[in-house]
């Protein structure tokens, strides 16, 4: 009988010395890549931040995939040569919306992926990212981010799938599946509840256990049980008085004992150091290393933990059994993904595969589907034949619309010879039809009034370590740079040199046939300008093919079909604001407003119209079955997302006013009609009772069928009694 990965891992573990075991649990990251690289590299270590990420610095041009593969392969070969059992290291990388070892295929930022409400397409994205990681030798991806965002001031909202538990779970599972089918370890992060009051990154979490289990832990559990994730990244913050990095309840009791996780846990970068240096829980780092290891944190990224672990062992804080337990999990993963049998990348295949036509085609399709039309008073789509002069303004117009966050390798912006900025693509698209005039904001009044149509492309300062207290479009003097040593996504520096809100108001006053294209990763306060603006397209950061997708939507070749995965507030004073709140004992709003958002979760306009009809609701042994017809009654091909929400009353505990439990994206040609069948699993009716027991407890439910959380077309009443569904 063939030996299982676990059996092979146990045999290998038994053959290693203590020092070799500790080396295999250690990691290293080196940059810049210079002549003394091999002198500094500790090849005996079992984990490494792949060198491809740093090769491009100071070169002046991107390093091709073959050269990245050569560098990683050499690193792997020398590592195998310098340990007695020829164990290859796990070369890891970021891969938030594309493999980040270099200029790989760049997809929409995750907030845009979530807007597609299409987990099958997101799995295809994960598959491409997995292929483009594995082909160069990268075998662990530090993604997906499945932190549920309930306060959009968090700078890392751009990295997330938004505010909803189900969307985060489904998209996270999809990315995990796509990566791991290619032998790349998925690493959902940041476990858990990685921001705090006001959206402050990595601040202490005082979230109660009920909310942790109902909201913030669920996507991680799904990524493990349904997505097969082999690794988890522990977060920087503390929860229940203990840093997540050394939180035994999170890492052992819940993750392993309850959920049955068999993979390995890695730290967020330098978070073990943070246990003593920032959280001040211990007086030396080696004690933090020891307590983290015992609590279930297996590999400290990205630093050398060898000396600290050996000190902890010699001081009696950890035993060889503690080391064995952690290393066995890592070795099992190495065998499971085939790393031990096929450790090297393929340079020729990398040149053929990376950013091949098929992958760029997927990037274009996902960009088209990710955009959300927020407002349209007959402005869009523009008529190509009637537009002879188009005015274009804004800092976002002439940059690649990929976003600063996790796009491209270290110190180098993502670029490609065949990629275009929105301005470049508009000029190409309208060649022979219209003159495209790109002007500075100071010239808006004159230029906009002289054109048939006008566009403003915004910019927002946001990203990792860039939390915001103001969610308006930034104006003059707004600048942010990130040189925090824990962040190697690249130094982000951006300065906004104009008052964008004033510019938009001036543009719409000068030309009523104008639209705003938002390039951002989180909700924006539009209160000062949206009433005067006839059309707003939320493009997010749509990735390398985003310029074409924006142009196609603006001119009606593609009908927008994205839906908001996060609530857009009217002003920052409403925050935190999300749709699935629990009932208030009195009121929901403030003196200044009634508590309703600018745009609700699940909302998104189209150029066409849809009719939902012929609703049926039946219950089976394992699910509630919703049937309906969807008809495209307008003049454009398009897509609608049917959304199913539950509202529970007469339950054992207070339930959310409304919560998404199922959805289905429906593509229809104009005039087309189809029957839609949506299953709401029994799991959707499970909740934690007063004793924190999870089960299908008694309750009465309203099942709402609609096209956003506030646009409901039909409701049904069902009951749960004795763990069974009863339809009325």
Short description:
With 728 residues, the protein is an alpha/beta fold. The longest helix has 17 residues, at 65-81.
Notes on the structure:
This protein is an alpha/beta fold. It contains 20 helices and 29 strands. The chain has a six-stranded mixed beta sheet with strand order 12-19-18-15-13-14, sandwiched between helices. It has a five-stranded parallel beta sheet with strand order 1-2-3-4-5, covered by helices on one side. A hairpin with a 2-residue loop joins strand 27 (699-708) and strand 28 (711-721). Helix 6 (119-134) runs antiparallel to helix 16, helix 12 (285-295) packs across helix 13 and helix 17 crosses helix 20 (546-554). The longest helix has 17 residues, at 65-81. It is globular.
Low-confidence stretches: none
Radius of gyration: 26 Å
Put simply, the count of helices is: 20
Strand content: 15-25%
Number of strands: 29
Question: Order of strands in the sheet with the most strands?
Answer: 12-19-18-15-13-14
Instruction: Assign a percent range to the helix content.
Output: 25-40%
Largest sheet features: 6 strands, mixed
* Mean pLDDT across all amino acids: 95
- Separation, N- and C-terminal Cα atoms: 54 Å
Features:
728 residues; alpha/beta; 20 helices
List the helices and strands and how they pair.
Elements: H1 5-14, H2 18-24, E1 27-28, H3 37-40, E2 47-49, H4 65-81, E3 90-93, H5 110-115, H6 119-134, E4 140-141, H7 165-180, E5 185-186, E6 195-196, E7 200-201, H8 209-216, H9 218-225, E8 231-234, E9 238-239, E10 242-243, H10 248-258, E11 264-267, H11 271-277, H12 285-295, H13 306-314, H14 320-336, H15 347-353, H16 357-370, E12 372-376, E13 389-393, H17 422-429, E14 435-438, H18 444-449, E15 453-457, E16 478-481, E17 493-496, H19 500-510, E18 514-518, E19 535-538, H20 546-554, E20 610-619, E21 623-632, E22 638-649, E23 659-668, E24 673-681, E25 687-688, E26 694-695, E27 699-708, E28 711-721, E29 724-727
Parallel strand pairs: 1-2, 2-3, 3-4, 4-5, 8-11, 13-14, 13-15, 15-18, 18-19
Antiparallel strand pairs: 6-7, 9-10, 12-19, 16-17, 20-21, 21-24, 22-23, 22-27, 25-26, 27-28, 28-29
Helix pairs in contact: 1-14, 2-14, 4-15, 6-7, 6-16, 7-9, 11-12, 12-13, 16-20, 17-20
